[in-house]
Amino acid sequence: MARRSSKARRRPKARPQGVLELNAQGFGFVKTAEGEFFIPASKVNGAFPGDLVEVSRLSSHDSKSYSSGFTRRPTARVTKVLMRCRDTFIGRYEIAEPFGIVVPEDPAIHYDIFTLRRDSPQVKEGDLVEVQIHEFPTRSSAATGQIVRVLGSEDDTDIAIDLIIAEQQFETEFSQNALDEANACAVSAEDAFASGYRDLTGEFIFTIDPVDARDFDDAVSLEREDENYRLGVHIADVSRYVAYGTSLDLDARRRATSVYLVDRVIPMLPEHLSNNICSLVPGQDRCTISVEVLLSPAGKVLSYDVFPSVIRSSARLSYDQAQVLLDSAEKGYSLEQTEQAFRSCEVPHGAIQVSSACIEKLQERIVALNKLAKKLFDLRKQDGCMDFNRVEAKARLDEQRRPVEIIYRRKTDATQLIEEAMILANHLVAQWLSGKNLPCVFRVHDEPDGQALRDLYTVLKEFPLCKDVDKHLFCNGNPHTLQEILTRVQGNPLQELVNTLLLRSMKRAVYRTEHDPHYGLALDTYCHFTSPIRRYPDLLVHRMLKEGFFGKSESFEAQKNALPWMAEHSSAMERKAEKAARQSQLVKIVEYMEGFIGSTFDGVISQVTTFGVTLRLENTATGSLPVEELGDEYFSYDPARHLLSGVSTGRVYRLGQKLRVVLTGAYPRGRRLSFKLAPEEHHDARLTYASDKWL
To answer: Rounded to two decimals, what is the model's pTM?
Structure first.
């Protein structure tokens, strides 16, 4: 028998795989099962952001060539693109006969895409186009493709939002079959009662939503029962009209969520359903699924029930109106004074005139609900829930969709009381489904990664407010320790930065069919049930509730088997929708800032790199301050402490530092600003944190 050669080829070890993230500087990162790798710009090897790639770690000798400040992470190169994230991109068209060149709008894509002029002779210089890539770039060849759509001219001020929609590939039109199915839907309380729905039309039920909301999918009620309270959370019964496997369902499934952009909404469901049949408009019978909870005055759940119902909302309130009722009660206003303050608020969309008696009933219940909400929150806080009290900046537009004002939305008692009612209902519905051994799309939030927290601790210990934080507890994700930091910075100029940094260190909440806890809310089980008009997972939960109410349907097994991939798809679409919403707001905020070029602002450093710093203004707009603008000297970068220090002067720029800058440019399509140091900053070598306690 022949002896096996000792030089027999061994099976090569599998290389790490992950999704490539790139930034405007050209370099990027790949998170793999083996850890996170830094990818230099020269080692991207034709990969695009979002591509699934295979990487190979560079030798320690080669890694030394890339003094990027990210050397704490191992350096690698992309060896192979395993799966392309997409093949269509948005860019600016330039003519270079016989070619047309598409320069991608995404600054993270550093490859131009070549097309043939003869294929698209009608496209003009400067047009913004959608191009489909036929051949991706290699070391020896450029990317090539074909124009599939002209979006408009780069000079069109309104095109930025259209570009976001095109970039994210959102569907903006419903299929005709889906529209036909939606238009055929009608509310029949009699049919609902006949099939087992409870009649709650005589109860005092009301909605509280933003003043400009068009779809109302949740309503609440509150009644005294001896010394206890019976809280009702009533949610639009979308599943009654959107059956599994219909055209309506397939359209909604693909979208998975409504997308709330700064100047428009891309709904998950046709308007006839979202704004009419399913919307809990006042004075109209609507089918709902109700959660009724018996609560003690201390917020303890004594019992609860989940059931289908028919309600008739008594009033539609805005958050501002609800807050007025709370404030009036606290100030001891008379009913006449309360009514006057209530009616001075902007009338919310879809509201009807309410009587003085109705206002009195509303105030009584909202005040009681506010007290219960605080008790519910305190109980969760004891269990370790996280409270990110963030300020949200939104652009207010005129009729021509031009930004005229920046509005700041903060958490109020009015918003919190609804939030706590919804959290409780979501928790109890997940509990109810689990108790019935029914499948569910759970909302899961895993504990933060230890390495991410250790990296963050290195940053936070530089802040005076966080110097004495217990390292062991923090790095092990002790929720009380993390919440202590959030509490410390509340009301401080560092609040938004610390909130953002801590959020970045957290894992994203996702949809799964596994029964896992929600770390951020400190709940052992949780799902999304309260927004089925705008979120597909909520609709899936409603369908499973129906399986429990009325017995298993013929499609039960098919629905059950489809839940895992539907959950994964919904998580992905949620991320896209959130990103698009955030980008659309920034477009208009930056557009608003165009009118202030040359003005001086105070900003807080939110990012430090070898290339300079990023500043965040109070209105959430961010901009760059390049290293060459920091002074006529060499600046060394400390990646562990996230700071730049001048070799000659010792001038230091670090996270959380407050700087006075002059706005030099505003670029709405790029969603960014550019700055230079204000003259007085050049003479201050002792720059300070954005904190009154730091000297």
So the answer is: 0.85
